[in-house]
Amino acid sequence: GYHTIYPFFATTKCDLILSNPVFKWVHIGHLFLMTAPMMLGVGFTIERVVAITMAQSYEHVRTFLGPMLVFVLVGK
């Protein structure tokens, strides 16, 4: 992405070097995008294990497990 498009806009050769803050933020964003699908699978597994152990009352009891897992796993 960056090294493909930015050379068209760079005015000096030093502009081609990726600055440290840009690298950190882009790298963190890419890590999040790569790991979010795996973490959601872990969340579904946890939710299903809890549902199986609470099979008698799971569908009738108000639970915040699903929204809490989404918040924890996606909001990390």
Automatic annotation (TrEMBL):
<keyword id="KW-0812">Transmembrane</keyword>
<dbReference type="GO" id="GO:0004888">
    <property type="term" value="F:transmembrane signaling receptor activity"/>
</dbReference>
<keyword id="KW-0472">Membrane</keyword>
<comment type="similarity">
    <text>Belongs to the nematode receptor-like protein srb family.</text>
</comment>
<dbReference type="Pfam" id="PF02175">
    <property type="entry name" value="7TM_GPCR_Srb"/>
</dbReference>
<dbReference type="GO" id="GO:0016020">
    <property type="term" value="C:membrane"/>
</dbReference>
<feature type="transmembrane region" description="Helical">
    <location>
        <begin position="25"/>
        <end position="46"/>
    </location>
</feature>
<dbReference type="InterPro" id="IPR002184">
    <property type="entry name" value="7TM_GPCR_serpentine_rcpt_Srb"/>
</dbReference>
<dbReference type="GO" id="GO:0007606">
    <property type="term" value="P:sensory perception of chemical stimulus"/>
</dbReference>
<keyword id="KW-1133">Transmembrane helix</keyword>
<protein>
    <submittedName>
        <fullName>Uncharacterized protein</fullName>
    </submittedName>
</protein>
